[in-house]
Amino acid sequence: MPSQYVAEAPCALDPGSTRQRTKSGSIKGEISQDRSWNAVQVRWHGGPQKVDKDTQRYTSSPKVLPKVLSAISTKHENIYTVPNILTFSRLVAAPVVGWLVLHDYHAWAFGLFAYAGITDLIDGYIARRWKLQTVVGTVIDPMADKTLMTILTVCLAVKGTLPAWLAFIILGRDVALALTAIYIRYISLPPPKTFSRYWDFSLPSAEVHPTTISKYNTALQLALIGMTTAMPLITADLSFAMTGMQYLVATTTVWSGMSYIYSKDAVKILNQDERTPTERKEKPVDKTK
């Protein structure tokens, strides 16, 4: 166990520097504020510490201090916004649409699918217009689209209206991306890495930025699934157009999956540089490596 602990956390202490001394006069800890970073650096030099409520000088034992400051420094964001609520409603609607397809309620299924498509456009507009973007929104928005796609792909393949080979390509790509997202969430989550913190989406740890081809692929997949869902309601023969659409979606699905592997901007892990402000100033990160 090292004898000195250095931690950083936002704090409302007054600017300047304070030192706490014991009765014998030895320095037990130091609290100083870095004005450029607008936070507090806390350095402990071993020994149990106490809380001084009168002077608002925060102390703790060396074993507890890192965990306490990690919890303090982790920022929560407001996830209860209108765009996120609309996105969550799409998540809830996805299994309902699948049930309607399996039980041949085609009109209701297509109507609920249309609702999902409309809210997908509305929530993005609201988030941009009123600056309600959240990190969790960048995660659950594509998650809602993929949940709807996955459920409808399985249900339509079971009903025989979607080729099994195409369903395998679509689902295989989504499973690979889902496993990757689980791994990225784990490695990007600030300590302590607990089960409750892992599923607390108000603790942002990574941002997902869809690639350009992925956006086109999502639109084409939704168009294909929507057309396939509505086919029982259409009397015209569209088999040739549907076949061409299926091959096009298969191509863009594979292409978009590969784009996440080779794109450097698809996933951004937050809080990568956890060094102190002094360390960052003395030795900047070499981005050429």
Descriptive notes:
This protein is of the alpha+beta class. Helices cover 54% and strands 10% of the residues. It is built from nine helices and six strands; from the N terminus they run ββββααααααβααβα. The chain has helices at residues 65-73, 82-102, 106-129, 135-159, 164-188, 195-198, 212-230, 239-262, 277-282, and strands at 5-9, 17-21, 27-34, 39-44, 206-208, 267-269. The strands form two sheets. The chain has a four-stranded antiparallel β-sheet. A two-stranded antiparallel ribbon has the order 5-6. A hairpin with a 5-residue loop joins strand 2 (17-21) and strand 3 (27-34). Helix 5 packs parallel to helix 8. The longest helix has 25 residues, at 135-159. The chain starts with a strand and ends in a 7-residue tail after the last helix.
Would you summarize the structure shown here?
With 289 residues, the protein is an alpha+beta fold.
Key descriptive features of the protein:
alpha+beta, 9 helices, four-stranded antiparallel beta sheet, 289 residues, two-stranded antiparallel sheet, disordered N terminus, 54% helix
- Form type: globular
Kindly provide the radius of gyration, computed on alpha-carbon positions and rounded to a whole number of angstroms.
26 Å
Unreliably modeled segments: 1-48, 274-281
Strand content: 5-15%
Mean pLDDT: 75
The major pleated sheet works out as: 4 strands, antiparallel
Strand order of the biggest β-sheet: 1-4-3-2
Per DSSP, the total helix count is 9
Distance between the termini: 32 Å
The total beta strand count reads 6
Structural class: alpha+beta
- Strand/helix succession: EEEEHHHHHHEHHEH
